[in-house]
Please model this.
Amino acid sequence: MPGAELFAALVESADDAIITTTLDGRILTWNRGAERLYGYAAVDVIGQPATFLVPEELRDEIAEITQRLVNRTRVEHYETARVHQTGRRVEVSMSVSPVYDADRIVAVATIARDITGRKHVERMINHLAFHDGLTGLANRTLIRDRLQHAIARARRAGGYVAVIYLDLDDFKAVNDRLGHAAGDQLLQAVAARLQPLLRPGDTFGRLGGDEFVVVSDRVPNDRAAVSIAERLEAALREPFEFDAARIDVTASIGVALGDADTDADRLLANADRAMYAVKARGGAGITSFAIPAASR
Model:
């Protein structure tokens, strides 16, 4: 088999999508890997502008890639998205190279590999690393990260950061009476009931057990911080119904307010201390920890 025919056979049998286009973006060649990746037969796309593969919001990247090719630079392992014939998005890793005739660029070659599965696994791993497995809320790692970002925003724009620490009262009795499955169900129900009461920018998380935390920035004063806690407390007054079981829930809630000079760990600890002060009084209440005088 002559060299050119062998090369064409290798391209045609490759698992990856291999496409060549003119400098103005019209498709010249389209191998079977491209058919598998994008769903179109070669006969349907040869001569067509390749832009139909690019999601609308990513069209600007074509000009950027073209400019890099004009500057004789390969684009390697560029992760982006393309559109399948069915309309679904396909996440791909692309390498784009200029094709030369002597010293002149005459076409563009693109090799694309489907990484949709890999990206899905990466997102799952990332979610598990930063979210509570039972409730889907932020976990301790993400809570602390969001709190540090909130304090940084306070340094730039002023205002206060509120941390609200909520611990369910007598949660052990629920587990003892109804079993751990019911306890888990209650925690999920509490998370689902309280989440909609918060602003979109607030962070609602579970530290573990029956302990929940809210981080809220751009809080004007201590009264606003306490009002968030009161809203959460009021929402828990409605009993939770599970099959034949009716569970009445109260919570001990601690509130701490910090400013631009606050340390994230100290602010969390202050809210925790305020919550335990409520516990020491018998639970079912709200207290604040050393609200800064300037915020009153």
